[in-house]
Specification:
The chain has about 700 residues and is of the alpha/beta class. It has 17 helices and 26 strands. The strands form six sheets. It has a six-stranded mixed sheet. Strands 11-16-15-14-12-13 form a six-stranded mixed sheet, with helices on both faces. Strands 9-8-6-17 form a four-stranded mixed sheet. Helix 4 runs antiparallel to helix 12 (about 335-345) and helix 13 (about 395-405) crosses helix 16 (about 505-515). It is globular and about 80 Å long. The structure holds beta-D-glucopyranose. Beta-D-glucopyranose binds near residues 85 and 259.
Length: about 700
């Protein structure tokens, strides 16, 4: 797919391009010969296979639990694929490290950390005897009531891109990643049937770019199709999505697997559309596919193409070579520490009036910890992304551990409806921590979409009652998505969104409550004042239409004020941003805008701020969002320290998809870049032209 960036390119520019190409050719020489060798081996192996052996590799072996395997060809030394979920830890084995859910990690806005999480999960995948990790989930969170919203990284294309690419790059140091679910999967209750009608621009600009990045930038070995239909065809047999866009346009050279059971709906249409593997067992592939080849309905070249894709990745990931399985990496100290770091890094401080936080261990005598969730393991849904860690640190355990050795009495009130004696305890405490939120019974893959974004009336009342009893009430929220807070947000002075923070979450939360670290998470989604401020969520109809606008793009366009905007998050310290510099750089399609800004920690403790760059398109010839996130950088700063955040925005990221010419168009506009610390706090701005 070409980018139309119409500008004249003189002799000097042409020279630069030629020099760059020569450099690239030299650098790429080794790579090219390696690739050629790999392709030769793939061709030779596939030429040796019988049709039956080829077709056998195109469907799961019917394993009933992970690792779900896909046959190889033992006589040729072609190993099996062994797949495991993802994405909050490795599901194939008990006792693996359980990380915070994707939404919590999205809230870290820290791709470098996500790369390390990917590495750890990739290592544990191999140690658990698997070689394909069914992660990351990068579906765009169109509406926060989606039952699997917790698995993905948020509502924004750019954030999904950066986090998804980082995860895949990390995981693929050890195992293949299967990026899921292509495409437009964001309703749970009707997921097996719903037909998502989405116009071409919306599909291209809102629902696909992060998949493209995972394939092209991170080299994902595999892509999983979604259950739902897109524009009249089930994704597993959607020729437009799979063959035309993913394979032809994006030049994806890996293999496409269906989602489980109902993810494959036919033999011939699915095979012709480009589905390479039916999971987890041959229902439409297997014998039926053999027959279809023999009757001429599926050309043998299509089978060869599928098998070459599978064998190519097996060889590229050295699955044909013996590898030492190091089980000691599973839930190693390093991975548990990483899980704690990830938990801490995703927590978003939503409110902190009168410096209610952090709590000072030395100044505290009694701390009340209230709510049924305070001491309940609550780390996400019970669907395919669930894992079985050997322990889970609850918020209460994290708090008790953090004050062990200090003179603090922790009073635990493990109920959501207070009893009379509880009130005295709460009143007499120096501070009260209320843990509230959603649980696996409210929503999840096997439970369905959330019925409401509001907490249960008991939990809302609990927050209000505790806040009325104790002026230093701190609310810790657990959820994989947005919670509407209008009924109670005015009452407690401090609120932390801790998401489903994984098995080390209790320690991560305590680190922040007691100021051992400063919160530095930012919202990866919009928290609306009311659900009516969002686009409608229809999880009953057989057909739904997805429009171009959701999340912050929607509330901005409608002129609505969210409770907490996309990108928002407070800290214990303060920051200032200044000295915005914007310059265009690069060559040809690689043209970019470099945005740099000095970030200073103006407070008294160490902390991290996320410099966020949004772009607006004054005078665009097509309808655009008011602002779109196009780059960000998390900057860690000691008190008083200044660092320059440097954000590169490739011009191709500013293109819109022109439906009439079927090309991405970078308009010759006077673009405006807005820089700040949330989508509504953007004090610095400047113009630039796409030359
Ligand atoms: C889910 C996939 C998952 C698969 C295997 C399906 O129901 O949609 O995300 O990878 O099960 O567990």
């Amino acid at each position: 797919m070409s980018y139309l960036n119409l500008r004249t390119c003189g002799v000097a520019c042409a020279n630069v391009i030629v020099a760059a190409l020569i450099g690239l050719l030299a650098l790429g020489c080794d790579q090219t010969s390696e690739d050629a060798n790999l392709e030769t081996r793939v061709d030779e192996l596939v030429a040796e296979m019988t049709l039956e052996e080829k077709v056998a590799q195109m469907a799961g072996a019917g394993s009933e639990q992970a690792p779900y395997s896909v046959p190889g060809v033992p006589r040729l030394g072609i190993p099996t694929l062994e797949t495991t979920d993802g994405p909050r830890g490795v599901g194939a084995q008990q006792g693996t490290t359980q990380f915070p859910v994707g939404m919590a990690r999205g809230a870290s806005w820290d791709p470098e950390l996500e790369l390390r999480v990917g590495q750890a999960m990739g290592l544990e995948t191999r140690a658990a005897g698997a070689n394909v990790l069914l992660a990351p989930t990068i579906n765009n969170l169109r509406h926060p009531r989606w039952g699997r919203g917790q698995e993905t990284y948020g509502e924004d294309v750019h954030l999904l891109k950066r986090m998804g690419v980082a995860f895949v790059q990390g995981a693929q140091e050890h195992a293949m990643a299967s990026v899921k679910h292509l495409a437009a999967y964001s309703i749970q209750n009707t997921r097996f049937d719903v037909d998502v009608l989405v116009d071409e621009r919306t599909l291209r600009e809102i629902y696909l770019p992060h998949f493209r990045a995972a394939v092209q930038e991170a080299g994902a070995a595999s892509v999983m199709t979604a259950y739902n239909q897109v524009n009249g065809l089930y994704c597993g047999e959607n020729e437009y999505l799979v063959r035309q866009i993913l394979k032809d346009e994006w030049r994806f050279d890996g293999f496409v697997i269906s989602d489980w059971f109902l993810g494959t709906r036919s033999t011939v249409p699915a095979a012709l559309a480009g589905l390479d593997i039916e999971m987890p067992a041959p229902r439409f592939f297997g014998d039926a596919l053999l027959d279809a080849v023999e009757s001429g309905d599926v050309p043998p070249e299509r089978i060869d193409d599928a098998v070459k894709r599978i064998v190519r990745k097996k060889l590229a990931f050295n699955l044909d070579e013996p590898s030492a399985v190091d089980e000691s990496v599973i839930a190693s100290d390093a991975h548990l520490q990483l899980a704690q770091e990830a938990a801490r890094s995703g927590v978003v401080l939503l409110k902190n009036e009168g410096d209610a936080l952090p709590l000072d261990r030395q100044g505290l005598t009694r701390l009340a910890v209230v709510g049924s969730l305070a001491d309940t393991p609550n780390t996400g849904d019970t669907g395919s992304s669930d894992t079985s860690p050997s322990f889970i640190v609850t918020p209460l355990e994290g708090i008790e551990d953090a004050v062990a050795g200090d003179d603090v009495v922790v009073d635990h009130i493990g109920r959501d409806v207070l009893e009379p004696a509880d009130r005295d305890v709460i009143e007499q405490a120096d501070a009260a921590v209320v843990v509230a939120g959603f649980t696996a019974t409210d929503t999840g893959e096997f439970v369905g979409d959330l019925e409401t974004l509001a907490l249960s009336p008991e939990r809302e009342n609990l927050i209000k009652e505790v806040a009325a009893l104790n002026p230093r009430t701190i609310v810790v929220l657990q959820s994989g998505t947005a919670i509407t807070m209008g009924g109670w947000i005015a009452e407690p002075p401090a609120v932390l969104m801790s998401w489903y923070s994984g098995q080390m979450g209790g320690h991560g939360i305590a680190d922040l409550l007691f100021g051992d670290a400063s919160p530095a998470g930012k919202l990866p989604l919009t928290i609306p004042r009311s659900e009516t401020d969002l686009p409608p969520f229809d999880n009953e109809s057989e057909e739904v239409t997805y429009s171009y606008f959701h999340g912050y793009r929607h509330v901005d366009r409608e002129g609505l004020d969210p409770e907490f905007e996309f990108g928002f998050g407070l800290s214990y310290t303060t920051f200032s941003l200044d000295n915005l510099q914007v310059e265009t750089t690069g060559v040809g399609d690689e043209d970019a805008v470099r945005v740099s800004v000095d970030v200073t920690n103006t407070g008294t403790t160490a902390g991290a701020e996320v410099a966020q760059a949004y772009v607006s398109y004054p005078g665009s010839s097509v309808e655009r969002a008011n602002l779109e996130l196009k780059g960000f950088q998390k900057v860690f700063l000691e008190s008083g320290e200044t660092k320059t955040a440097s954000i590169e925005i490739p011009l191709r990221d500013l293109a819109y998809f022109d439906v009439s010419t079927r090309a991405w168009v970078i308009e010759p506009l006077e673009y405006r870049v807005h820089v700040g610390t949330s989508s509504r706090d953007l004090p610095l701005s400047d113009n630039f032209r796409a030359r």
